[in-house]
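2.7 Reproducibility. Because tokenized structures are sensitive to small changes in the input, we list the exact sequence used for Dicarboxylate/amino acid:cation symporter, including any N-terminal residues retained from the expression construct. No trimming or masking was applied before prediction.
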Amino acid sequence: MIETPVNLTRNILLGMLLGFIIGASFYYLEFIPKSVEEFFAIYLFSLGGSIFINLLKMLIIPLVFFSLVSGISSLTSMKSLGNITLKTVGLYLSTTAFAVSLSLIVGSIFQPGAGYSSEVAPPEKLPEGQGVYETVLGIFPSNIIEAMAQNQMLAVVFFSILFGIALNKTNHLTNNFSSAFERLNIVFMQLVIIVISYAPIGVFCLIGKFVISDGLDIFQEAFKYVILLIIVLLIHVFLTYSILLKMFTKLNVITFYKKMKEVAIFAFSTSSSAATIPVTLKTVQNDLGVNKNVSSFVIPVGATINMDGTAIMQGMATVFIAQMSGIDLTLIQYVQVVILAVVTSIGTAAVPSAGTITLVIILQQFGLPLEAIGIILAVDRILDMIRTSVNVTGDAAVACIVANSENLLDKSTFNK
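Resulting structure tokens (single pass, no recycling of outputs):
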């Protein structure tokens, strides 16, 4: 078995703490020369963080391709793949619907936007959204090489599934060629270990970059919104997923969260579900005992359509902006927010702050001021880090549930 670097989680936490301390020192201590601050910000934090993110992104497409192909090509029954697909998509959409509903309820009760007096500042630039039509069409690539180069995850997943099915059906004609993909998958998992062994340095740079540029002042304007959003995120990640795991798997939830620490820290540092895929796959397979036939499908798909944390933000932000604008949303409109959040989550890119794209769609639907996104964006960077941790935890929870239902969960590995 491929071994994880010793004390990796502890070292990542130390890197995070050190990055926060040094970044805050440069941001708040005025006697530090500007030239020194710029050197740390650009040539240490920004460069180091970007290199680490690029290394992670470098692994995503080949890892997803080889893990999916090797998993599907070794299936003894194609019916199993259909069951895994239905259960995965059903669970992801259900948890997203519950997440945004929970956010809307809490926002309506505690009213984060009530009495808001600050002027709404327009953002410098709004991201362009992707419609349902484009999202569905994008699943079927006209050029798979181009799709891989552009990190179009759903297209890569679709092609990998087709390739895996074809390989499965022709194994007897190709002298068991699928075994080559299994060996390549092992090689790429080892490459993941090599890259994440430098995670403490990467996390140090990423956290330092964030703090040295933004500090903590951005939380003052929308304090109640920030606090309520964090509370709902924590409720969802620790309560909702615990209930689902207990209900469908009977697994020890404490063990689950302990083993997910490293993944959550990675997700927090990178703010990208896609960049965290290599670490999530490694943890789900090696530590949680999920068979690769399940994990190789559930995790990449989850990075694209499982946006529980993003849905929570969208619900709370919609309520916040409506309240600060003096607009009362009806029950029917709340239901529409839930539906929109679930549908648009499928087209949300698994990259930092991509949830803002779908928030624009929701605000436009109800005639809410788009200028208010300036406030949301001001506090979104740190919240996005937390949301991403929620998303990847949900991916792992669904992987455990689906694997258990298919008798593809090694509970002895999980309980180690």
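The radius of gyration is 22 Å.
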